[in-house]
Amino acid sequence: DASGPRFVLKLHNGVESDKPPFLEAMNMMMAAIDAAGVPCPTPLPLTGSGSGGLTALGVELGGGGDASSSHAARLLRWVPGAPLVTDKAQTESEWEGCGEMVGRMAAALAELDPPPEALTRMHLWDLANFPSVGAYVSCIKDESRQALARAVLSDFDSEVASLAASLPRQALHNDANEQNLLVADGQAAGVVDFGDAVLSFRVAEAAIMLAYQALDKADRVEACAAMLRGYARAAPRLNEDELRVLPALVRARLCCSVVMGAYSHSQDPENDYLLVTQEPGWAALRELSLMEADGGKREAFTRRMIEAYADGCGGQ
Q: Residue 69's pLDDT is what?
């Protein structure tokens, strides 16, 4: 029945399939977020699952019959909507709505206490592990871009590292980008793709959201301000230290994206998807890193994020 419910059968790669506790953690996160009113692809029970649908089902691919061909599968509810990036007529109201949706997601995930143990993992895309990106900077051939990446790493060391141990942590979606935020009719409509979930800095959810919001915008500072206002209306309140490191974490995520994209493409030259954020990413990173005297918007970005966050919190 084409008018009936729609579903997605997701087959996981070998890495995720070998980690059932991580799949369970994603399921727990999606259940919490959905219960909070944020549409996401929650799993349904499958024949052979161990806990009413909250356990992956092994399937054989390729007919080999060996352990290496066994992959996890989950049947997920379809979330109507389209990725934010596909909307060519985005509005400030839509950005605020998406920010508020991410804030509501962050609030729901904060209730997972204690968070699933499987989220405590070594993950290069965890902003707490950003210094590890330094090992890949040499793959960037352009000297000016390599220097910019090293400057962002240095900023992290001087602005974030000393506060890292005291920054609050919680379960994170960890990839609230313009591909994973869904919209419909100009309104926020859902969140998908939990494969980068991790336990990390609470403020990182906002930083990651803003890093991708800064891409391909005529005025990236104001575009980010709109999204952060929405986030502040619904998310757990960030403390002074979290607000202090937010701009550095935004630059760190942009840096991670362009550096790891360049490295991954060097290993798989035929995969042009890995270059999706390269040019817009470097442009955003340069503008948000350079001082105003050098043609950048570093000070303006920091100033506007503080103002926008206060506006979203009701002026407090």
A: 57
List the alpha helices (DSSP H) in 75-172: 92-110, 143-159
The model's pTM is 0.92
Cis omega (within 30 of 0) for bond into 114: yes
Give CA–CA dist 79/77, Å, rounded. Answer: 6
Grouping H, G, I as helix, E, B as strand and the rest as coil, residue 287 is: helix
Q: Both tokens of residue 281?
A: 């990413």
pLDDT range class, residue 55, cuts 50, 70, 90: very low
Lookup result for tokens 């959905």: 34
Residue 192 · residue 84 · CB < 8 Å? no
Calpha distance 22→167 (Å, rounded)? 24
Task: Grade residue 48 by pLDDT with cuts at 50, 70 and 90.
Answer: low
Contacts (Cβ under 8 Å, ≥6 apart) of 183: 81, 82, 83, 84, 87, 94, 97, 98, 189
